[in-house]
Amino acid sequence: MTDFAATRALFDLPEGVIYLDGNSLGPLPGAAADRVARCVREEWGAMLIGGWNGAGWMAQPGRLGDRIGRLVGAEPGSVVIGDTLSIKVYQALAAALEMRPDRRVILSDSGNFPTDLYMAEGLIGALGRGHELVTVAPEAVEDRIGPDVAVLMLTEVDYRTGRRHDMARLTRAAHEAGALTVWDLAHSAGAIPVDLAGAGADFAAGCTYKYLNAGPGAPAFVYVAPRHQAAARPALSGWLGHAAPFAFEPAYRPGEGIARMRVGTPPVLQMAALEAALDIWEGVDMAALRARSVALSELFIAEVEARCPDLALASPRDPDLRGSQVSFRFAEGYAAMQALIARGVIGDFRAPDIMRFGIAPLYIGEDEIRRAAEILGQVMEDRLWDDPAYRIRAAVT
Amino acid sequence: MTDFAATRALFDLPEGVIYLDGNSLGPLPGAAADRVARCVREEWGAMLIGGWNGAGWMAQPGRLGDRIGRLVGAEPGSVVIGDTLSIKVYQALAAALEMRPDRRVILSDSGNFPTDLYMAEGLIGALGRGHELVTVAPEAVEDRIGPDVAVLMLTEVDYRTGRRHDMARLTRAAHEAGALTVWDLAHSAGAIPVDLAGAGADFAAGCTYKYLNAGPGAPAFVYVAPRHQAAARPALSGWLGHAAPFAFEPAYRPGEGIARMRVGTPPVLQMAALEAALDIWEGVDMAALRARSVALSELFIAEVEARCPDLALASPRDPDLRGSQVSFRFAEGYAAMQALIARGVIGDFRAPDIMRFGIAPLYIGEDEIRRAAEILGQVMEDRLWDDPAYRIRAAVT
């Protein structure tokens, strides 16, 4: 049994704010502030270069990777952290493509987060071997899997609608067609139970600054199934992925196992924040988290639909088909979201008309869900989105 | 005139330590601890997702890039920070190779830092188009430049010996042969005056955790000469390098200018430390820094050579041919360095026999240089390196 009142107390949330944007950037775990301060003063400041061994910085990407691995059903030694999600997707995709040299199609869906598609495009351009990125509607993915597909690259949970792919089923279909899979877990890790090993996933990548609450710019992670690790050639063959980084050999030899997916010097301060954020997850039962996420999401949908007839549910109505976010469509969604944020309820907006609300049971409860729906109801009833002040778009939205 | 007593006071160095390893990891600027703490509590904690605009996180890679640009003679708008040096070298090299499609040789020297060579190897393997990485001795580079060379990829200052290439001369030679240059400034930025624009450099990359003192795992930077920016195709085409990242378009369109070399979400906590570290550089005159670096290096060489006949200078004797480090060869260098570190003088060791000492005038003065040489003299005279305790090699050295 997970005590969600207890986990709520571990976050430093500003007074009067209802934070439904943890699917974009998770809030500050109080312990992270102390952990980062210690890392700066007692490790960097006091140990200087000695911190790489003495404070364990060098081993942290693997250690933290294993801790994330437990949250996404990965085998020990199959996850390592570092870089950004874009880079980790590129690494996984490059390795997977090389393992299917006779095939030319990367299959994805049109709702995938753009950076995954962009990185695939960049890789295809660099390779210059006639690979093709094919995107179809999410519901058409399974039918499109065929003998020309080298890699099926999907984000499990859609960043706009929260629509969830069936990882086990699509992975099976890919394997039956002789393809490999690259799963993007940006909106899965810490949001829903994930079982990479059980699903037979080949490669995966994810970020830690959303539901895992590791802070702005926190490092990404990459998963390579143990059966593929020896064959996965790192295209981004950096020194920390070398078998003996400190031998400074002139030629690259990939490290053992997942370590070869490391590239350069890991971000030590960000890893300190990640470490503190992961401590909160130690006591969390993922099934209990999921049950609570579904209950809160159902409550939010019911409350909003009862109060806001102009908002149309953009997320699947069946909770089994959703991640841990709820989205609504509204033509004036940008301005409505600004009005809502001005009243202390923080969600976000995705073009052209999606109002997104992340549901993170670690720090959001029923009272906040009800109150957020009430305030959204007021915004809609009073047509606050019609205020010109809310229509000025910021650079980053 | 730069007041080096004043800059020394801006660093939090442990009592009793003489730190000659800033060429590996710079020490903590006191203000960085406060700046990072503010970033964690007042930005991440209080502003949450609003920090991307409100605290300027999104604009920081370009802003900090320009501040670094001033230290390395780059034009405004030609430097951006992010990722690691390995990734930035890969980006620069991939873009440069595409601009010389009819040539197949990447020329480097055998003393280059391995990750540059490894990343080139990985890129060549991914491209699969018969490119070749040719490494020659540092002094043979100029003669090897010829019509088959697509890219000359060099680290300006050798990480082991401190030997410095003539950037302007080699860049000119490369251009005369129709090749492009990629300069690694890992041991140059903040160590010596660099004039990328004056030298006509094409691409460059560097790290910020050495002489710039931005902390363990601080982000790297990349330079693209303004004349190449429009033609430089990003192989690592991440969403934050897109012309309109928040339009979430399905296809990649590279951003204007240097922004296209951004990839994923920047490391906000590390950027806060970098910002504070760069504040120290605002008042520093690079010519004064260089004069003091040379004076301190000459003093260290003279003092060590007077006391330690068994140590052989590994760095060039002519200061014009050195960066800001001094290295000595000694067969038992590993153990001797451990003995030295145990006595509060921190340098480091690079296989097979190099004892390295970084000379950073911002926080090292004549007294410390004399005292370090004295203690090294004792270590050598008393054969302290013969103690078995100093021969046990740590995982990271």
UniProtKB/TrEMBL annotation, chains A, B:
It comes from the Bacteria. Its EC number is 3.7.1.3. The keyword Ligase does not apply. InterPro entries: Kynureninase (IPR010111), PyrdxlP-dep_Trfase (IPR015424), PyrdxlP-dep_Trfase_major (IPR015421), PyrdxlP-dep_Trfase_small (IPR015422). The modification N6-(pyridoxal phosphate)lysine is found at K210. It is an enzyme of class 3 (hydrolase). One of its GO terms (biological process) is L-kynurenine catabolic process. Pathway: Amino-acid degradation; L-kynurenine degradation; L-alanine and anthranilate from L-kynurenine: step 1/1; Cofactor biosynthesis; NAD(+) biosynthesis; quinolinate from L-kynurenine: step 2/3. The keyword Hydrolase applies. GO terms for molecular function: kynureninase activity; pyridoxal phosphate binding. Keywords: Hydrolase, Pyridine nucleotide biosynthesis, Pyridoxal phosphate. Its cofactor is pyridoxal 5'-phosphate. One of its GO terms (cellular component) is cytoplasm. Pyridoxal 5'-phosphate binds at L85, S86, F113, P114, T115, D116, T155, D184, H187, Y209, W239, T265. It catalyses: 3-hydroxy-L-kynurenine + H2O = 3-hydroxyanthranilate + L-alanine + H(+); L-kynurenine + H2O = anthranilate + L-alanine + H(+). PANTHER family: KYNURENINASE. Homodimer. Catalyzes the cleavage of L-kynurenine (L-Kyn) and L-3-hydroxykynurenine (L-3OHKyn) into anthranilic acid (AA) and 3-hydroxyanthranilic acid (3-OHAA), respectively. Belongs to the kynureninase family. This is Kynureninase. The lineage of its organism: Bacteria, Pseudomonadati, Pseudomonadota, Alphaproteobacteria, Rhodobacterales.
